[in-house]
Structures are given as C-alpha cells and as structure tokens.
Amino acid sequence: MHARRSGSNGVTLSAVSEASSSGERVVLNAEAFRRMIALERKRSERSRKPFILLLLDMGDRPSEKNGKILGKISSVLSVSTRDTDVTGWYANECVLGVMFTELTSEDGATIPGTVIARVTDTLRNNLALEQFNRVRISFHVFPEDWDHEDPQGSSNPTLYPDLSEREDGRKSFRAMKRMMDIVGSALALLLFLPAFVAIAAAVRATSKGPIFFRQRRIGQHGKSFVFLKFRSMQVNNDAAAHKEYVQKLIAGKADKQPSNGNGGGVYKLTKDPRVTRVGCFLRKTSLDELPQFINVLKGDMSLVGPRPPVPYEVEAYDIWHRRRLLEAKPGITGLWQVSGRSRVKFDDMVRLDLQYARTWSPWTDMKILWRTPGAVVLGDGAH
Fold first, then answer.
1. What is the pLDDT of residues 331-376, one digit of tens each?
2. Which end of the chain is more exposed for a tag (fewer CB within 10 A), N or C?
3. Three-state secondary-structure class, residue 296
C-alpha cells in the first residue's frame, strides 16, 4: 500500500437514490461526490477550515472484483469516519473517496499523518493481505500550499474534478480558442511590426537598459512563465512601493489614485517615479503590452483572459482569489479590461474574471476583442 499527501451536506434525492448504501453509510455516486468536492471547496474558502480528500485506488479498470473490495473498504471505513465526513466514488467502481470536513486550521498541518495511520491500521486489520496490498491510498489537503517555484504548477488537479469535466466538455471550443490565439497573435505581430521598431528605438534612445521588460508571472494552474512588455520603467528599480500598494489593494484597504484630473480615480499607482517619460505614453496607450502577443503565440497566454499576476500578488491572495488562475488561461485583454479596468476594486475584478471563465465561448472572446480597441483609445483606467 502506498500513501501520498499532496497538497450535514445536502444532495439531491436522485443522487441519493442512485447511491449505494453500506451499513448506515451512504456512498455517493461519482457525479454526486465530485459535486460535493466542489461545494466543500467553496465552503472551505468562506470558513477557512481545511478539508482532506482521501482516495483509495485499485489502480485497475473497473471490475466486479475491485468493486467488491472497495465496497468492503467503504464498509470498514464507516467505523473510522465521522458522520459529517462524506463518502463516495471518485471514479465509479474504481476509486473510492472520503472527505474529512470541517477541520481547524491547526489540524490541517497534523491530521493527515494521524488519518493515514488510522485508516491504514483499520484496513490492515479488516482486509486480506492480497486485498490490502492492491489498494493505493493518497491524501489531498485543501487549500494547497502553492509553490511558485514548481514548474509544473501549484494547484492539485485532484481537488478540482469539476473543472476537469468542464474543460473536457469544451474541447472543441478550446481548440477554436487556441486557433484564434495563434492566428490573431501572428497577424498582430505582423501588423504592429513598424510600431515595434519605433517603440524599440524610443525606449533605447530615452533611457538605459533593455528594450523588453521580462518578468516572472503566474499563469493557469499556478505555472510560471516569462512575461514580456516594452520597458516603461528605469532599470534596477525597487518594487517595494508597488508590492505594498498591491497588498493593500487585495486586502481592500487601498485608496483610489488620481487619474489625469478624473475625480473618479483608479486603483493603481499613477505617480510611479520608476516610470520613464516614454513609459508614461506607452502605458497610457497600452502600447507597452504589444510584446505579449509573443506570449500568446507561445501558448503561455491567450488573447482573452484574466491578467497574469506577479508572485507577490498571488502570495497576498485570499483562497477564493486563486480561482481566477485555475479556471482560465491569462490573457492580454478580458472582461475586466473592457468593463472598468483599474476603476473597479480587486474583488470585483476577480468576480469578472470568474464570470468570464464560467461563461466563455469563442463568441464571447470575439465580443471582448471587438470592445478592446475602444477601451484602449479612450485609455479608461490605463496608467
């Protein structure tokens, strides 16, 4: 047996009627159990109480023999789990799951080892040796500890089966989106080639340093990539002021900054001493973002999606803010940019990103792309 740690609940009557019962324990079918995982994530985001997902995997295709073994395991586990814990099939007749819910934050660091020992002892004492050795146990704790240095990403896909199912249902749309990204970014790079040359010359002539600004950003599923812009700031600058403002912005404590005489103001540093004179113009017109078409062509970004954050921004995120990185690939423009840009609070920006992720389609992307030039020309919220 292998153990690995990675980083009452209501169900519909139809889900209960389709579930199997072992003793007094109701075992949800895969559809209902995966839905409960999604609901428990959202509950954990609000309560800040972690939960643990235990999976028992036979490692084979579903079979009558495996189903009987896992059925016996579910019966055995009923004596070592609480009434508030949720049992169900993560994959029907193949992977059995148990959610240990409503843990305290302190428990999140110590309980996995205790649960592993308790479950292992219970199974060892109640299963035949051959049955015991066929089961692989894994534990997955939510919320995960995000490691931005991990090139494979910070999120644990096991905890997000609903997102995987959503993506599987959009395969044709995702193929269309990627084709739009390739064709659109390639055409944009050709169209703006004269502007690239002119901007490069202006940046080089007015300040010392490289033409392009390269920065590590966090993309979908917590994977990092090198983000490109035309350099609009002096080199070797101190990011402390920006980091402080971003942390206040995410916490909802940032004040609006003046915006070119506009009394409304924006949630963004507008008088940043690091920005050069040419940089001010590039930022106001969003021309500094043209090199991001290279990121789109490479597949790190999309034409439309949430803006990719810097690591210290993600470190300040509330748990639910992470969903903007899980549910959609970052983009050059998005619903936030055409619906208020820096004039809306951070939480509202995240809600717009999540709204986009839930409802996007190629047609939605085309509508946002159609509205983007107007937003750029007006410069609303750009600094």
1. 999 998 888 666 778 899 999 999 999 998 899 999 999 998 887 7
2. N
3. helix
Q: Are 214 and 226 in contact (CB under 8 A)?
A: yes
d(Cα 360, Cα 354) in Å, to the nearest integer? 10
Torsion over CA: 181, 184, 190, 192 (sign): negative
Q: Are 137 and 120 in contact (CB under 8 A)?
A: yes
Instruction: Summarize pLDDT for 237-265 with one digit per residue, the tens.
Output: 777 888 888 888 898 886 766 665 445 55
Secondary structure (3-state) at 144: coil
- Can you give the pTM of this predicted structure? 0.80
Place of tokens 């997955």: 140
For residue 375, the one-letter residue type is A
Domains of the chain: 2-143 (3.30.70.270), 167-378 (no CATH)
β partners of residue 226 = 216
Residue 181 CA, distance from chain mean position: 20
